[in-house]
């Protein structure tokens, strides 16, 4: 097994050379403006050490990676009753597919496809104004990474609010089945804002430490979530964290991960480390092309796989 | 963490009490005759010890569990070119669904749904007569568990051959897309026979040791498959091993597993143990009801989860 | 062949006896309040005679029947370029299905499923404020039946506007594919209002005369639409006018017709008559149960079928 | 309205000039050998006159046009109980789609998609050996056109039997739902043979006369089927006779028709004429490209439309 510093430097160097970097998401206009040459990676070891390479301190739009944090919050809020409104199975469909909702009466397949994450957000809205709910999620993420500089990129949120017609469709569709308790615009208002959180790789890696450490914040020692729930969130990340490319990621990389169309991926090596990587170009499934590749390389060199002896 | 003997006895005792044992598969008439009260479990530790409880020495029809062994053989035979003919993604559909094949031009989602396993069998047929291919698979499984008494239950094979119309449909359908190189009856002839292998829990747990041990046979030390491939088969078992209940199994049990409609499940704790469990009653997704529950209990007590620190 | 007066009286008498009258639509709350005992029928012969029975002078919500009139207007406005945005094939799916839209990139199957009718409405909005577009459609229908008392039931429109989440989903979904040029709320605002037109059977039968008469208003002699277009609208009514029950209606009744969830059906006997029937109880496909039956009986007695020699 | 001789000559001349003639079906190898320049048309008027142009006396493979005759026979044999096993709705899917069967439990949408026609054939097999059933269907068609020279092109039947994997898939799939009473190979054996009937346009137009004449053979005066059933078969031809292009055909041509992948179409002008046209090149929906166009032109010139006043 290699030293993490060496491994990380080697992976970053290899990625800097990469010619085919995928395509930057353009369906959210604001995201289309990001420079595809960016690449950053940060590793927060359970022992407290943090390593970083490349653009690891440049904030990017975490987008769907935020679904890990909202799921954690929602489970803390209403517990396993959440699973009456959202499933736990891979979808076998693109992230924004609506077909499955029609066949399964408005119950999304899992909390990481858009529809499922909108339901999770709807849960977090209960008893709150949208502004309060957004604030609660933001403070939770700031707490997780112990860094108050995490902020909301309002131009990204506004961009999605103006153009996220598919998400409006999903929300209204679930509402028609009674699986949304707030007005679609309200739930989506919160959803678009937590997707627009801007974080650096370093912050994101730090925020993910509780998942690598059995639910306990490896920095402060605070319990964020029970050990069983931390495991189960990892399980969901592995089976559903990369949309229709989840099987491929599990096959190639072999650790739980959650990607976002901003090009970020949060990955977890249980018992060892939390990793954040960012490169804006996406592959055909909407996951960061170089991010996936960097994690595959790093996991191989470090022998990090949940499937290894 | 508990002692394995104690844990196993406790789980077996709990299962003996279970009232709701699921429904025995009836779509293969021969399987419908099995006594739903049966329950067996065996654990083959990487250190060589083997533990068993209940009907662990009674042979049962392993059915789809055999797909793990045929996949292993096919990867050994043609390597990663297999993945041009079969995908690596969870299907989001029942095991015998044909819908996905129409939408994806005859390429099955993964090697563990029926369609995918039929393609794998087609690979193993190349250059062989069906009888020879069946013999090769049988000898491989006998080698894996170091027990020549594994046999083919010909009445089960005949039962499927006479009634497996869905599988004939799948095979012919893939043939129409050119994704089957032999006549459907030939590929299915081999497929029905390897699904009809009769094994005990003890044999099955022993046969799975290479997956818990990085591809090396923990008994003899022979390398069955490379470490990377062993990992990847584990990854596929985790994401796709329980059909449309794979996410649920990963969520609840947290280790790779492959189920069969005969009520068997082979599960793997990488680095630790290979487990086989059998109880004929199935849940709604076609996976052993008590088998899944027993694995959930055992994994919890033993703290066996690939997602745990 | 029978006399129309006799036939009509006989059919009305038979319907008055009917025990199983279907279920009144409840998904638009306002519609759920209508008395299921209502039944009316009116026939406007091409020769100018009009016959009516039952509650033929009681206004009801025409709902999707209005799609015939908006299609007529839109074809007049932009001609056959409409068919670049909406298809002409039966959908094989329920009226509010979204599955087909995902598979066919936001192009609805035909102008009579909800999605297609929303596109047609979007066409009519071009260059107008919603209020003006609604006014234009209303005046057109008033002109067709030569009766200014046709009105908009604003409580029905408001009811749909507050609860029509499926339609919001469809509109947003098409917007995400670029197949809606106005904001979804604007297009739906107009759509909900023309669906909320309140008309009597007599008015509706009169309004449909141009379709029975080669595009010419049989009362005034004005040309509403070309003969070829009138035929083609009839063809669309026959193949797509009853959602997933269109084949059944063509099979049993044998004449073009368009139904609405308010329980109305407009049917056309080319060269002979325009018929409107109303009974609020619906069958499983969302078409008026007694309305369909009454048309089947009447067509049989009168030997009215486009498929008869 | 034009004279039929003139109109026919004019249409044939126009077709002879056509550059884009579509693509000859190649999925049945034997059909791929047909010369795409062929074009024939024949019209059998109810008054007994027969007109023909082009290659109207050259036999071609009628393929799915035979489904009209088997449906007629099956309705004569078991009456409306047929509709318990096959629907009457347009499918909204290609002719050989299997998706709908999975969603609707093995009940095909209508008797003109492949799956539905296989069920119809299964009905005709009851109490017969395949050879007898084929003979019965052949004699029926010979009787209808009063010409014993109609024959089975055995090379086409053999070609399909060797390569018709999709149809084997459909048959086995329906068998798995219990909606096929004979072995799939038996039902398909008969199916492939009646699809391989070789007929000329003249023979086919003559065979269709009963549909244009209320069920009575306009030549001999024999009643082939009741008037109501003749109408209903016409209705099914209009709504389902051109697979996923049925709406388009109804829209453009406006008369009932049934196409086959051999390039033939049988069309019916109720009360007036039976028409057969043949040109081997197909459009994207699998219907004869020039055949459809010729019927559109002819129907327009002759003012033949079931939707016209």
Automatic annotation (TrEMBL), chains A, B, C, D:
Name one process (GO BP) from the record: glutamate biosynthetic process
Which Enzyme Commission number(s) are on file for it? 3.5.1.2
Indicate which residues the UniProt annotation says bind substrate.
64, 114, 160, 167, 191, 243, 261
Keywords for this entry? Acetylation, Hydrolase
Signal sequence extent:
none
Give the reactions, separated by semicolons, that this protein catalyses. L-glutamine + H2O = L-glutamate + NH4(+)
Keyword ATP-binding found: no
| UniProt entry tagged with the keyword Acetylation | yes
GO MF term (any one) = glutaminase activity
A Pfam family cross-referenced in the UniProt record is: Glutaminase
> Which NCBIfam families would you find in this protein's record?
Gln_ase, PRK00971.1-2
Family from the record: Belongs to the glutaminase family.
Its subunit composition reads: Homotetramer.
Q: This protein is called what?
A: Glutaminase
- Species name: Aquibium oceanicum
The gene is: glsA
């Amino acid at each position: 097994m290699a030293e993490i510093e060496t491994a990380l430097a080697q992976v970053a160097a290899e990625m800097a050379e990469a010619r085919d970097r995928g395509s930057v998401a353009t369906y959210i206009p604001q995201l289309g403006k990001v420079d595809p040459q960016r690449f950053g990676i940060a590793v927060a070891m359970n022992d407290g050490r943090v390593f970083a390479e490349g653009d690891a301190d440049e904030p990017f739009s975490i987008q769907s990676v935020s679904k890990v944090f909202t799921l954690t919050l929602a489970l803390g809020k209403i517990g396993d009753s959440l699973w009456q409104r959202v499933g736990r199975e891979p979808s076998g469909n693109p992230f924004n597919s609506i077909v499955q909702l029609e066949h399964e009466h408005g119950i999304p397949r899992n909390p990481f496809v858009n529809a499922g994450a909108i339901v999770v957000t709807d849960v977090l809205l209960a008893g709150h104004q949208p502004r309060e709910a957004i604030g609660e999620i933001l403070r939770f993420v700031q707490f997780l990474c112990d860094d108050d500089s995490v902020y909301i990129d309002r131009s990204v949120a506004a961009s999605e609010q103006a153009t996220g017609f598919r998400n409006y469709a999903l929300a209204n569709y679930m509402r028609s089945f009674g699986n949304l308790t707030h007005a679609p615009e309200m739930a989506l208002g919160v959803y678009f804002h937590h997707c627009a959180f801007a974080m650096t790789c370093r912050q994101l890696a730090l925020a993910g430490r509780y998942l690598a450490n059995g639910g306990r914040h490896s920095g402060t020692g605070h319990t964020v979530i029970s050990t069983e729930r931390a495991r189960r969130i990892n399980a969901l990340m592995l089976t559903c964290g990369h949309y229709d490319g989840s099987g491929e990621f599990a096959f190639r990389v072999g650790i739980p991960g959650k990607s976002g169309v901003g090009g970020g991926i949060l990955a977890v090596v249980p018992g060892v480390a939390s990793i954040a990587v960012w490169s804006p170009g996406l592959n055909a499934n909407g996951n960061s092309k170089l991010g996936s590749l960097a994690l595959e390389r790093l996991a191989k060199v470090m022998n990090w796989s949940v499937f290894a002896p």
